[in-house]
Amino acid sequence: MLKRPSTLQLQKQQQPVRQQWNSSFQFMLATISYAVGLGNIWRFPALAYENGGFSFLVPYLFVSFIIGFPLLYLELSLGQYARAGPAVLHGRIRPLFQGLGWGMVIMAILVCIYYNVIVAWAILYVFILITGRSHWWSSCTQDFNTPCKLFFGRKVYWLK
């Protein structure tokens, strides 16, 4: 007599094979690059200096170890265990939480767009400097400038 497969067995058969990390070192580098962004590198030294230097670092590290790293580990372990993205993962935990997962995906997309715009501007300015056209923004004789007044015998240009 033939047994009919259960729906769980059918779902397992239909799921595509997901890629896995080649080594734990590769996973560690990806995790660090996920956690440390441009804001940490650009803003953190100034933030620490403005808020008291070492006296700022003590509560910052305390909160990072008590709240930040456990939440990061929870997110990573849930994703590794479920082998799914945030929208599917939170939908499996509770269907109401699927919106939270989609919110995480949308925020990641917005941050990627934001970082790409910053990098594009940096590449544009480096290209302009290398090609020797930096005099375009250092002179006041462009079409988008208007003469305002004479200042010590020189014309001063202001943006329109």
Low-confidence stretches: none
* Strand percentage: 5-15%
Question: Average pLDDT, to the nearest integer?
Answer: 78
Query: Roughly how many Å is the radius of gyration?
Result: 26 Å
Approximate helicity band = 55-70%
Please give the alpha-carbon distance between the first and last residues: 85 Å
Bulk shape:
extended
Identify the strand order in the major beta sheet.
1-2
| Total E-strand runs | 2
* Biggest sheet details: 2 strands, antiparallel
Order of helices and strands: HHHHHHHEE
Secondary-structure class:
mainly alpha
Number of helical segments?
7
Pfam family, one: SNF
Transmembrane segments: 21-42, 54-74, 100-128
Binding site for Na(+): 35-36, 40
Keywords: Membrane, Metal-binding, Sodium, Symport, Transmembrane, Transmembrane helix, Transport
